[in-house]
Amino acid sequence: MNRQTKSRLIFIILTFAITILVGQGTFQINGRVTDQETGDPLVGVNVLLKGTFIGAATNGNGEFIITNLNPKIYTLVFSMIGYTKMTFSISVDKNYPHLDIKLQQDVLSSPQVIVTASRKAQDIMESQLSVAVIGMRNIREKSAVSLAKVLPYEAGINTVKGQLNIRGASGYTMGAGERSLILLDGVPLLGSAAGNISWSVIPTSEIEQIEIIKSGGSALYGSSALGGVLNIITRNAPAKPETKIRIKTGKYSQPKYEQWQWRDKPGTYHTTEVTHAQPFGNHSGWLRLQRSKDGGATQLGWDESWNITGKWKWNYKSQYTASLYGNYYTDKSGLVNQWKNPADPFEAPVGDAKDYGVGSKLNINGFFNYIYSPNMVVKVKSALYDVHWKNHGRTNQNYSNEQKWFGETQINTNLFHSLNITAGSVLQHGSIDAEIFGNHTSLSAALYFLAQQRVLPQLTLSAGGRFESYHVDDDLLDQTFAPQVALNWRPQEWLAFRTSVSRGFRVPTIAEMFSKARMGIFEVDRNPDLEPEYSLSRELGVTVMIPGGKWISHIGIDGAIFHTDFENLIEPCANDTGAIQFQNVTNARIAGAEIGIKSGLLNNHLMVTSAYTWLDPVEVNEIGDVTDTLSYRFRHTWVNSATAYFFGFSAGLEYRYSSRIDNVELFEENPETGSDMRVPIHVWNAGFGYQRKGWELLFRVENILQYYYTELERNMGSERTFSVDFVKNF
């Protein structure tokens, strides 16, 4: 190639790049979005130019404007939680078109736009991975202060004493290590040592939606995402000032067996929170203060806490946005370990009744988005965690001081309107000074990418991976690459198939490697020789969204079969001396299937959901033969709900079933009575509410039949509870 040809080629490439990246016009699109039935303006509707990163959100009058456009035909996508997504094509020229858009309420009340599966906004029907989405209404109808009350009613999701399980990946690890990564607005929400989370720090009243990726997420999100990802997306402040007061009060039933009653009157719990949201020009923010006091169902189940949370968002024209999220949580609570004995399951062991712990957690997240061009956006995220706790127990005087810093840079670009590339780098550093763990540091660095190509009009292929290295105390613990390949085929607007294969990994946490303590009657011993664990996940799924008529409005069906092989799985086991120790248990396999259905009936006045999950969680030897059952997994779960809506009133009924846990690990069998009784879980809940002009009242009863069960041996499940929840918006 001669010099002249090279010069021409360079000129063509530069011209093409400049046209794509910096070319901006002088035209605009503006309009107004309203509710199709009421005609009221809709605030906060997302308006996006399809195939680009250019967009806007509607203001307090439902109006929007998108500027600096070149003359051409654009397709706009209008989306908002609780409404059906709408697309609209328009030719932009000198006439500056004004649009009048009317959105229809979504009868399934389930958000259809997700961001977690591919780190960019996409229709849930086009996701290559299994995704569950929980909207604001689902959280509110359960009167939830903690997400641990909401998550078990989704297909494939369970909690064991508060520890998240997605398709049985985690079991129960004493809070020392999660295989399901929890994100807050896309930023990991985990401590630096144990890797566990306190659900109380999450502001449930300020959540916009929750996205749960049920397939392994290590290819995009790293170590702790081996078993899936849960992303909690907080809301932005509305375009108009708003003050909200919430008061929730309730009580526990007395145990129905007189010999179990350990106090003279039922325990009570109370939560009060005040939230104020305020716009300032193009910018806005909200601040929330919460006070909770819970007497607990058990003698050591009490808790007192303060929580202050805020979020501020800056909008600079249509090119720059930034936000800052902060949360400070402090609490004092009883140190729950196990019951006194089977005859007194709600009382603390002798001598432990006054044991308690105090702690504080500070979390600050920062975000900056820069739309470099219609085809490229740059995102920068950072986070700081500062966690302190100290136990004051008869045999437990442990303390911990942890700090963690997180930083991420991500670039997302569209090429040729059919290829989307997401790439980024991540750096995390943590340090801990704790009696139970010792003094340690951790450092991880990662590079990731994901390419999505629409190979046919109905077929999308994605391929990506993550390279990550992890150090503990300056020693390299693991360095690995996790790839992922996935397909989505959408032959009809209402029908989509998906399949994926992904490699996962998880490095042991500092808690798993270095914990050494005595907790009640059992001892935990360190294992610094722990090795990383790996997985290979395969999945095949289908989503059907059938439009209906007056009596059956819509039907949504989602099903999947999945299979994951684990290598060097880390589980808590008894060692040769009888102490609990985290060990690499040879290999394991979790296979399963799930199916869920959602439907609106009687002209949308009745919402019905049902979901069933089957798991086969087993340990296997080197040739694949089954040697044992993995502990703390439910083979069968079935969740159901029905909610009716008439003239501002709502009435709902829920039922949750989980089969008897086959295997447990932490406590040895009693030589006199044998193993602790384990039974299936049958829980019925009911709620009745009323909403009118900013007022909301909700009565709720949980565990109506006062059914007794254990998820973790020697820890009784919650008693029946009654609550009244009052909300007023000003």
Net shape: globular
- Which percent range fits the helix content? under 10%
Report the strand count: 43
Radius of gyration: 26 Å
- Name of the CATH first level of the largest domain: Mainly Beta
Overall pLDDT score? 86
Total number of domains: 2
What's the helix count? 4
Beta-strand residue percentage: over 45%
As for the CATH topology of the largest domain, it is Maltoporin, Chain A
CATH superfamily of the largest domain: TonB-dependent receptor, beta-barrel domain
Poorly predicted ranges (pLDDT <50, ≥5 residues)? Answer: 6-23
Distance between the first and last residues' Cα:
71 Å
Structure description:
There is one protein chain. This protein is mainly beta and 730 residues long. The protein folds into two domains: 20-103, Carboxypeptidase-like, regulatory domain (Immunoglobulin-like); 113-320 and 329-729, Maltoporin, Chain A (Beta Barrel). It is 5% helix and 57% strand. The chain contains four helices and 43 strands. The strands form seven sheets. It has a 22-stranded antiparallel β-barrel. Strands 10-15-16-13-14 form a five-stranded mixed beta sheet. A four-stranded antiparallel beta sheet has the order 3-2-5-6, with no helix packed on it. The longest helix has 19 residues, at 3-21. The radius of gyration is 26 Å and the shape is globular. The termini are far apart. The model is unreliable at 6-23 (pLDDT under 50).
